[in-house]
Fold these 2 entries.
Entry 1:
Amino acid sequence: MVINFILLILSLLIYASLGITNLLFILFSILTSFFAAKLFKSKNKKFIFIITIILNSLVFFFFKFMIFKEITSFNLIVPLGISYYTLQIISYLIDVYKNKYPAEKSLWKYMLSVAYLPHLFIGPIAKYDEIKDAIFNNRKTNWSNFYLGITRVFWGLSKKLIISGRIAIITNNITTNNYSGWYILLAVFLYSIQLYADFSGGIDVVLGLSKILGIDLKENFNSPFDSQSVKEFWRRWHISLGRWLKEYIYIPLGGNKHGTFRKNINLLITFFISGLWHGLSYLLWGIFHGIFVMFGEKLKTPFQIVNKIGTFILISLLWCFFLWSDPFIALKMIGSIITDFNLMNVIQNIFNLGLALSDWIVLIIFTTTLFIIDKKQLLIKDKLLKIAIEFKLIILGIMILFILLFGIYGIGFNVNEFIYSNF
Amino acid sequence: MKKKIVLSLLLICLCSCSTKEEVVETFELSYQEIEIIPGKDFQSSALKDEELNFMELSSCAFDGNDKVYTYENMEITVSPLDGKDIVYSVYFLNDRITTKEGVKITDDKETMIETYGENYKNINNKYSYLKGDVLLSFIIENDVIISIEYMYSNN
Amino acid sequence: MKKAIRISLILIIFIGCFILLNMLLQPKYATSLVEGSMIAQYYDESKDHEVIFIGDCELYANFSPMVMYESAGIKAYVRGSSQQMIWQSYYILKETLKYEKPKIVIFNINSIRYDKQSEEVSEAYNRLTIDQMKWSQEKIDIINDSMTEEETFLSYVLPILRYHSRYDKLTSEDFEYLFKKKHNTHNGFLINKHIKGVNNLPTPKKLGNYEFNKESLNYLELILKLCEENDIKLILVKAPSLYPHWYEEYEQQVIAFAEENNVDYYNFIKYSEEIGIDYTTDTYDGGLHLNLSGATKLSKFFANILKSNYDLINYQGDPIYEEKLKIYKNAIK
């Protein structure tokens, strides 16, 4: 009880320290949704519901698309994590409205579940009943959880600092310095791994920190590169967003109940909104994903490995919209892969792109480790708990030394924040 | 109806996506029809005939020397950056050379402001204008320009 | 119980590895960038100098204490380092005074032209001066006063945070000098026999303001105060390096300061003819530093001034210094 209270105060304080407007906007969202949900018992239920949803969505859209800046020329900084908590709040409003669970009575419990700092910036996007259970009802703090949590935090940091940081040097170089042709192919493939290491690394830190506190949050990834189609990819990548879109957009639109044509339209709208959530320049990315989810199954071959490689290539090519903020430049770059066949040039130049041979070796070793660990997650968790404390310490120590030694940080390196916390 | 929805969605999408490619502008100048842009690489051979003096400047302890090329009206300092020699600064030696916008040493402060505007930083009588990653600085004494220098500023 | 021992053992091993890694990754400045090891070489010296030089590279390249010993029996040491800024000189003097009380401190005034915003201030030079200093209050202060915006104090405490990416650049030097130091200076003087004369010099650029920065002047006053408190005679010098250009406006301010505070000041650029410096053969980099030949001429000249104008003991014949002189003579052959 006390610890939760401290958690709430700490969350709000740290959040506010990053900009006081942050706090004002999250409080606005929390208070409007909390009191609106309480009023759902009254006669004007529908009216209140719609108004609150619109109000919160408007704030989100205003910030997301810089409408504030356009109309007031007043440059407000986008509140951190607004993309994530707005979705949580909307799902809460819809769930309560549909009587899936009753409205929360305690304001401070509700506040903590939304403003819970670890998940505020990068997700996973929680559903209220689940996160409430995780924080207040199923809380288990013990040494096993502490150890699992702390190893996971360091594992997340390794992914971010050793893998993602290293690849970022190359992808930044390729995107800012007029490269074309097969350099672009190299960039999108590497970016696939970079984004995964970065985003899932961030999620590892969130889940790890929560685990230390005894809070079990839902996983957000499940070996996404094992997917055999784009459709499957969306069940393994950013799972919490996929689930949210499915439950609150796709199914309410009618899902697959009204024939193939309606289903496809619904899919397209859903992915359109997914693109919109990421930002205006990601709309094409969203639509392409929608199209590949619609028709991708038809491209499947009987060979798993072919499907996996094909899906990886497809997904990677689509990340071009993340690499170049202008979608038309992104498409132009992808086009140059076909028109500009300079594979030999890429091979000759591979060590001049920012990473020396030693860095490539480190990158390959750690990326391979990442994929192996991904596949054996459960087994590893089990083993980690069973080994003697001495080995636990050794594993932790090695992780810390590796991060210090091989991480990309400090002077000479420029590591940005987690990529996915910008959405 | 449904097709219309899809079409209009696509249209919205395409419209919202169109943004222009941005080109960063900087100060630059040309000398004997050779473009000299601070921060970009320098082809000293193109101005070989004009060259009056050349010297390499060392720095304490570290490798990588600056090179100074002296011409009749200006001095160009070239520095190594990422394996390339880039123009680091261009210093005017007299009033026989003007900036691309036509300002020269001995012009008055008013001319500078008329040409480059009020958006300068003044530190110790050195008035600097930043455009892209190039700093154009004028030193003013008694309302008269006594020094003009272009400098690459990469931060 | 046994478990507790095992756990402590593992922890100790990890801490040991961590410390070792820190030491291994830190540059040794033994055979390349030797300028980084100068400040620390002082610690192994006998601390009985009558003259201490503090300042930038214009000292360690231009003044040879062994020449001064040979010609006038002076025991001197140069605590110089590359691009040593005036605030750094202050702390290095302060640190030196903890080890010994010389009769004379000589400060090369060149660095007073810079302030903390100058583009000459850089992380790389900070590292050369500070990295190998022994931990003391002075080291803490020098770090805090020198750090550029991108630097952190912690990276001086734990060098691994700064140098971790050297893991693939380690050479045999890093292992050889893991626990020992290489002495490549002679009482702080770095021998350079290379000849590269002065052909041309860049045109001195006009400045908007020639006045020394107040903060930098304040450090000069602090240096003076420190000397006065310790009964030390402060002498200001400007070494005969030809660039960066030493403006007449600078010269006048230094003269005014010297007169006002009763400090002696020697600008050796003005004495260069008298000293006999031939700039076509006496510098190793076209005018920034003197080479061995130039430094020898300058050191003899200055030793003479010191001998005749200040109350210094003639130590000629001192067995330790005779030994040092032998090594020096060997090195300059």
Entry 2:
Amino acid sequence: MAWNLDGSRPIYLQLVEEIRRRIVTGEYPPGSHIPSVRDFATQASVNPNTMQRALTELERTQLIENQRTNGRTVTEDAAMIERERRMIAEQELKACLIRMQKLGISPEELIEMIRESGKEKEN
Amino acid sequence: MEPILKCNNLGKNYGSIHAVDGISFEVAPGRIVGLLGPNGSGKTTLIKMINGLLKPTRGEVLINGNRPGVESKKIISYLPDSNYLDPDMTFQSSVSLFKDFYEDFEEERAYEMLSRLGIDPKARFKTLSKGNKEKMQLILTMSRQAKLYVLDEPIAGVDPATRDYILQTIIGNYNPQASIIISTHLISDVEKILDDVLFLKNGQIVLYNSADAVRDANGKSVDEVFREVFACSAN
Amino acid sequence: MFGKLIKHEFKNTWRYMLVINAAVVLLSLIGMLQMHLIKTSSSYFIQKMSTIYLVLYVVAIIALVVVTFFYLVGRFYKKMFTTEGYLMHTLPVTADQHIGSMLITDYVWWIEFSAVSMLCLFFCFFTEEVNWSEFSQVLTYVAGHVRITPEFVALILAMIISPAVMLLNVYCALALGQLFKTHRILGAVIMYILMYVVLSTISSNLLLGNVGGSSLMGKYFFTYEGGQGPEAFFDGMNSFLGSMGIYSFVSNLVVGAIYWFLTRFMIRNHLDIQ
């Protein structure tokens, strides 16, 4: 999967966000092995130092664990992953609400639109 | 730790033109530095001085504490902008040459990288396409365990797929004790793999900082900042 | 490192030299055939064609010699002063090692090819005519009368090193040509002519002209005491050649060293590959 990195923001921040997203969606399952810094950087086409910085940050928030001898693994703490998932969802929702507001659509209208699109999907 | 590269007031004059105008900077081990600037900014002159291909007019350049000479050449792996290999030579004979002269050359790695490209190691260079020649020269350069890699426009003039291949090879060969200097004007392709960026304008340093810091400070990509710094008016 | 440079240079040149040597030998074999035809054929037409061949053959040999010379020194130029220099000058090798290794390989090839060409020419034109027993008699007579003096040794040494000095002369001209920003080969030719003029002037002044009241030649070269006949002639020749030999040897060494240092200076300080 291609990494879409935007040059206008610090790369390491974007890497943190993207890896976090992949953990939360299950693309990197709990307990799974994270590639070495070099391999991971090659996959993402980024500087290994930048990738190192991103991984260090993720270790700090404990989404990733660094077992020196066995390398890095995704956390097995399902509760934490769930919390992250909700946090990301809430962020997306907030951003969406703001954008809808700018379009002049109130939250109530939005709820109605969601119900409509839900019905369409079922049909 | 001793910087791999250190320039003290380094300058080169051609008559009255100051191609490189008294610059000072350091590169620590393990950094990938982008040497960025338009044509004529002094990048190539600076690179030639680092490699001992040009004698400075003033100041000095030190590689691991040594002035350019036999000792510094042992630890610098240089990829020039042009075709520097004898057109009659083959990959095989070039590998044998590199192996003979560079202790840090890794023959297996070179052949392994070549096999992934599917090019015949016995073909003479003059028979190869431009893109393949560039890839081969890159393979030879990156098959050394050097302390300083100097790549002059490694991705200019090749197709996007080859560019990706070249950038992947550079990242894949990364070694925290070595540094890489990439000189280019194709910044948007390259900026994601850079640790630090150095802007050169009219032989002087106008910016030297980490790439992420530049992005943070400006809210823009390095490429966009570059365009602002080096904007020419069309009027 | 030095040996490796030599090894790689031979590796890169032996194919060309093989082809060119083979060409010379082949042309000479045909030439021998033509010589034979001229002698044995009664057809005027065949004699005429063979003669034409032999004329062209000599021209061809001269041309091949010239071409080979330019091939060899051209390699020096390409390796040191064109984009191949990016590879050569970033090898962990000194300028002296570069100059020395190219000098050795070019010298070996040059001597080899000159010898082969001269032998082929000789065998083509003279094999049937030479009276070998007479020839060996003359050789023995001359050999018997040559005294192996230090001067004589110096003369032989001078002959041995003079092709090397000639090569260094060309290297030096090519290197000095780098002083020009453009048209560097033209610059090299100009420098070559300049060096030739300067050297000839100094040389003739030393030998024949007035250096401190008399010339070298007048003062030192003729120590012939007098006498008559072939013995005296050989004595005189010996002393002249001997002095000439020492002068040649010393001057070749000095001039060769100057060329070397100039070349090295240019490579170290004025390299600017475009």
